[in-house]
Amino acid sequence: MSTEAVERRLYNALWWAKVQSAGPIVIDPDTPAVAGMTRASSGDTVWLVPTLPSGAGHSVLEELGAPPVPVELPNETARLLAICVACCWTDRSAPAWPGTTGTLAQIRSVYAGMRGRAEQPSDLTLIIGSLRRLHATHWVLWDEKAAEVRLGPRVVTWSPADLSTLRDLCRHLPDPPPPVLSSAQPSDPPPPVLSSAQPSEAALDEALPSDTAAEHDPEVAND
Hints:
Elements: H1 3-22, E1 25-27, E2 37-42, E3 45-50, H2 58-63, H3 74-88, E4 102-103, H4 104-115, H5 123-136, E5 140-143, E6 148-151, H6 160-172, H7 201-207
Antiparallel strand pairs: 1-3, 2-3, 4-6, 5-6
Helix pairs in contact: 3-4, 3-5, 3-6
């Protein structure tokens, strides 16, 4: 094997080690391509995201630093992801990434409409918990201080079939109210750069891309 090939393999292995440790990461825009990874650009920010194998199971996703929605309340978390998509993917003729900024007020409105009832005291706790889990797994970028959300870099890996399904899902969710954004923009500094008809809840679960769903924990009740 040539010296150049060895160096390239080591280069790719280094980036994979970083992603396996931290999940999708922000890189310098001039960083050369990495085999098996997708670049997700939003303004001056560029994320490096693993290209997931088709049908990858939970253990494979964990190994690649791209775990699915956590087992804790998986259905509730997946529903919140669907609502975030509806609030942040406003031009559905365009790619989902990077989308637009949504707000907690929009999410609460759509959540109540999806449930078909007035907001309950426990709803906000469930919503915030799901947003934190989605942020931790890079499905959304949740700014808790500003109460604003954007889609995360992992949505760049959704296939055309996934996006078609999500477009149909969004058409059936209640329309969010117009966003009222924080005056401070951007609302949160980017992560450190490493150089070089109303659907049923079951229908919502089934409509989301398969890698967002985790194995159900039999001990999790009322999810």
